[in-house]
Design a protein that fits this description.
Blueprint (H helix, E strand, L loop, with lengths): L11 E2 L2 E8 L2 E8 L10 H5 L16 E9 L5 E5 L12 E2 L1 E4 L6 H13 L7 E12 L3 E9 L14 E5 L13 H11 L10
Parallel strand pairs: 4-9
Antiparallel strand pairs: 1-8, 2-3, 4-5, 4-7, 5-6, 5-10, 8-9
Length: 205
């Protein structure tokens, strides 16, 4: 199977295929965008310049940007999300977002995720689980690898201080269709709901 990205309206979209992955040392599923069955990444640079089928083996370095994010749940098992600023010069203004950000030089995805949660919410995250990795070639402002985790904290929005963005809230799974999410986060959230991992009252952290 050969997949290559198509540039649409200045944003890149994601082709999804399944591959095996690991979640917190247990069997899990890793969702990847634009991957061959062997789990190798396509070169978005080469694909943009040609409509011909591209070679099947590529390196992670083909994606210069790497992002680590967490689906963060509050005390009542509701997903914490924040509204991005309405500034027209930022990607996806006035869209809802998860917590996380770009990896800094030498940072692992987990360290980046922990740092971003501390910077954005003032929370020292102690426990988390790996969900999936997404190689995004469409649907975002630029090609990137997204590492997705999920975690739960013993707080609610009223007890948190949002350091960036306009507003913080938390949602139940049945409310997700009422929110417009940035880039491919809406699809990621659908994948998470389908996975059955949304925390329940019996879950212990």
């Amino acid at each position: 199977m050969r997949l290559y990205p198509i540039l649409r309206d200045g944003f890149f979209g994601a082709h999804l295929t399944e591959a095996s992955g690991v979640r917190s040392g247990a069997a899990g599923v890793e969702r990847k965008c634009s991957l061959s069955p062997a789990g190798v990444l396509p070169s978005w640079k080469e694909a943009r310049s040609s409509r011909e089928p591209i070679r099947e083996k590529f390196e992670l370095e083909d994606f210069a940007k790497q992002v680590s994010m967490v689906l963060l749940f509050d005390r009542h098992n509701r997903l914490l999300i924040y509204l991005r600023d309405g500034k027209p010069d930022i990607p996806f203004p006035n869209h809802w977002d998860f917590f996380g950000g770009h990896l800094e030089d030498g940072e692992t995805p987990e360290r980046a995720m922990v740092r971003e949660v501390k910077e954005e919410l003032g929370v020292d995250l102690k426990q988390w689980n790996f969900f999936r990795r997404y190689a995004c070639t469409e649907g975002d402002a630029y090609p990137n690898l997204k590492y997705l985790y999920w975690a739960k904290i013993d707080k609610i929005p009223a007890e948190l201080n949002l350091a960036e963005g306009e507003r913080l809230t938390s949602i139940a799974p049945e409310q997700r269709q009422n929110f417009k999410f940035a880039n491919i986060l809406g699809q990621i959230l659908e994948d998470f709901v389908e996975s059955g991992l949304w925390p329940q009252p019996v879950d212990n952290f």
